[in-house]
């Protein structure tokens, strides 16, 4: 087999493959040749031949081929025997001549040895660890052996948890693990002790290997004084990477599963707070991690020890250590590096969540003091680091937002434990930051705390006549002029919406508040997301009944701000993009709410019925004017937005009619009816223009749908005054609409017949035959066009046409409209029914 291996050709292929100047085709051909070699020749022979090369890439190719052969189950025991002899000879004869080799090569050699040992020890290679321990003459050999132990450990350490393993593989992994405890671990630890300070590269490799073993070897082997001394000395070394690796080993020690009393004893022996001082260099994150998990382990051990009277001594020792760990974690909360801060917050959050159990008589004062210090630390940390804008989607800003939520959760736990102190500290922070000269970040932090405090003290949010939240709102409202940056503007209006009832007790502030909403820092802000949010929050506060009633005094001012929003759509100026259609609809809903309140409270609002009606009518006329632009030249989205606005403004009268309060404002009815009446030609013109939906254009369908929605509302408001324009418009409209538009017409007709009964006879007469003929024609067309294999959509459309027309016939018959038509036109309708019964009676 070795005669079939052309090593020079393999080397040539490898040169082509690793040469950056080679074309993709050349590299692909080279790789194909190498794969053919791996398929044609057993792995042990490729390994032997390639290790005689002088080219490192050939060594790597040979070793990688051997690994694939072993892990793929291709190499039998004889092949593996050959491989290990070749590898050991290579390590003994060639490696000592190198001062160093690439880490990827030492890793690949170690991986190959680990794969063989996993399968051959102890049955086929009982002296594996003894044989490998003999290759320690050079630093490179020691590195390979350390990596071998690390990779073997990764393979077998979790054998009992390896879901992909067969029972036989789990059993073999466990047997290797048991044998290592007796034969390999002493060699491994001896190797660790001699290499851990030899060189930076060996130190990191040794620590990496040690960290993996700590989880399952006897902890006393690591807690041996000399080993601990080495680990702590590396933690203080100048080499930050080695220090971080050493800290990782210590973290494995403190998180290792064991009885809580033993855990407390080990943490006491380690005495980490005194041996690992606070630092602000590259190793800070690893230190934060070890103290975070250390505090969590201590709290869990304390909880278990506390439950047993006999373990009081352990509980006392544990409590003392918790104090030191908590103090260190609080320092990490103050770090501006997000990863470091996150560790501190995680640990303190867990500590605070378990605080209640620590309230024993002899410990209460200490815990109280610590919790108060945590409150102060968490509040101080609410201020974002310098340079944060909250406008960028940077990773650090997202992390800080997430961490700050966790801090508020900590304050929530403390607030439930000591509410008065927590509120006192929050108010103190707001007083400190809500001042002229404070930075944007300080203002934003104060507003953030105020807003989220409502989630902690929910029961106090409803009544803002006094108390904590009243004082908070007095502070933030007083400094409203300083909120000029987007984050502070948004957070301020969020607070206004959440604590809106504050203004119900201070109605004199409403004019100022309205000015803030309708300002360049509010609804007219330059940033779309800010103005959209502020507008939505305005609609929220109008739902608070006392505020809504207070706003009735300023209906004229509110109306004056609605006008340019409407005009902007018509003129195409910069206001056209200020608010989305959805937000405009919400704004008109808010206006509707205030208008209804005004109409019902005209004697209190200072406005007469005519005043209120006049304001509403002026808005309706402005919208109608905007709609009068030639409908076929208007963008569908613009018409859709204006029709939404029209529906919004008509809502208060619709509500009054449905609530039975119409009689209370009978004097205004004619004026309102006249203004709505004037919009009829415009809306019907739009319906006519967009009667046929071109290629299923969604925007056109939306326009048609909203126009019909408005007509439905006008019928409710205008009652029988709504009929005359419809008698003129719909006969022509019915000739143009497509099937979906026709169905919308039928639904509208059903509403008219059901509402006006016999009084709708003239209207029904004007459209009845057109409707009936369209039914027959549409059904016949749909059936004939799809006679071979009608789709489910076509079948659904046919059923919907017939069903809706059936409802129209039923409404006409039930309300005595149909009988009037038959009496007036005897024989015509009868003939119609006889001719078209095959369609109508289905």
Q: What does this protein look like?
A:
The protein is an all-alpha fold and 842 residues long. Helix content is 74%, strand content 0%. It has 41 helices and no strands. Helix 4 (56-71) packs parallel to helix 6 (103-120), helix 18 packs parallel to helix 20 and helix 34 runs antiparallel to helix 35 (698-718). The longest helix has 29 residues, at 167-195. The protein starts with 6 loop residues before the first helix and ends with a helix.
What is the compact description of this entry?
The protein is mainly α and 842 residues long.
Question: Unreliable segments (pLDDT under 50, ≥5 consecutive)?
Answer: 568-576
Number of helices: 41
Mean pLDDT: 83
Percent helix range: over 70%
The total of beta strands comes to 0
Largest sheet: none
Shape: extended
Strand content: under 5%
Q: Rg from C-alpha positions?
A: 41 Å
Distance between the termini: 85 Å
SSE-based structural type = mainly alpha
